[in-house]
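Researcher: We're teaching a course module on how sequence relates to structure. For the next exercise, students receive a sequence and then see the predicted structure as tokens, so they can try to spot secondary structure elements on their own. Here is the exercise chain.
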Amino acid sequence: MSKFSPFETTLWYATAADAPETTPLVGRKQADVCVVGAGFTGLTTALELAKKGVRVVVVEAQEAGFGGSGRNAGHCTPTFSYYSLPSLRKMLGAPWAERLIARQLGANERVKEMIAQYDIDCNWVQNGYVMGALRPGALSTLQVKSESYAEAGAKCRIIDADEVERLTGSPRFYGGWYHAEGGHMNPLSYSRGLARAVQAEGGEIYTSSPVSNVVPAEGKWEVKTPTGEVLADKVIFATGAYTVDGWKGLDQSFKIMKVFVAATQPLDPEIRKQVLPHNTTMHDGRGDIYVYKYNHEGRIVASMFPMGRRGADPAYTRQVMTDRLKFLHPQITQDIRWEYFWFGELDMQMKTIPRLYGLAPGIVACTGLSGRGVPTGSMLGGILSEWALDTPEDQLDLKIEPLHKAPFFMSFAPKMRLRYFRYQDARAARREGAELPPHA
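Model: And here is the predicted structure for the students to work with:
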């Protein structure tokens, strides 16, 4: 697992609820469905199945939440990260687009229900999400976005500069888009809570059990690990960017893109009254994103993508994060210390939506969450469990596709796109006379 970023250095690992008791898989287990991967997608799938009396076994190479589910920034905003809703409709067509849109827009309601039903201690806060406009021209784009999401059922609206400042404390924005359903959490605590819920419903979870292969056996599928195997009627791969082995070619269906997350020291109470006073999640609205929020201790948790020296040079990266935060919030007078700094991996594909691959009769895989993990991973359990319960393919909310290799250019295209967004934002800001953030 050395190919992945360190896990124990994250803020979430330091502050999460205790992990549920699990053991490696030893010997032979029988199951109706074997789920590979104990992240949001795998655990919500297993939970849906276990609740319906299905014998489900989850096998995980590391521990519950080890991958993107335990190291993401903790934002939970039920939107799509790249495509507009009209673009999705054009790309996916009917009825697939409307089905996926409905699932995604309803994801936070599902998250909230599971947290309440299973008493998951994950510091869940649902005080909304603000995407700001750092230049006047960005408001028209946000207006179109707001109208399309509102028409689809989202609780959202355009807000003016005064309301952005009231909600977030930042005087820098010309207005913004407010999504009332946005939330945030400790994602590792949420992962561990989902694992406990699976166990409470009768599902079995085995950790430190990497899957090496899946082969036919006794008219079923045998999922092999170093010290045991699961004999199951159906198998679901839900390993995302942290796929290693298990099915030939699955780890080639996407390209890895890194993202980094950093957390400050707990800010002074007086500063917290002025910066994000309503505990919202804030997106600065630029294509080269800067997204931030508080954790339950009052630390600012912010995320960006690596670009050149940013991400590669820790001291410089921390300075960039500080300068950007203080630009957005001039009222921060105290020194900022980024006490936690970590990376995560994203499974990027040409289409930044989840992809459902048919690997063999009775075996599917889902990858391509592309950085929209908490709501997307949580809603995918409903779709994958419906597949396992024999819902006809044409009635699923994701179309099953043949497995294919991600094109080579996806190794560099997302990074180039970020640079283009950065250039485009800077050019537009200069044209409109808007002040650019530091290091923009």
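Model: If you want an answer key for the exercise: The chain has a mean pLDDT of 96. The CA atoms of residues 119 and 237 lie 27 Å apart.
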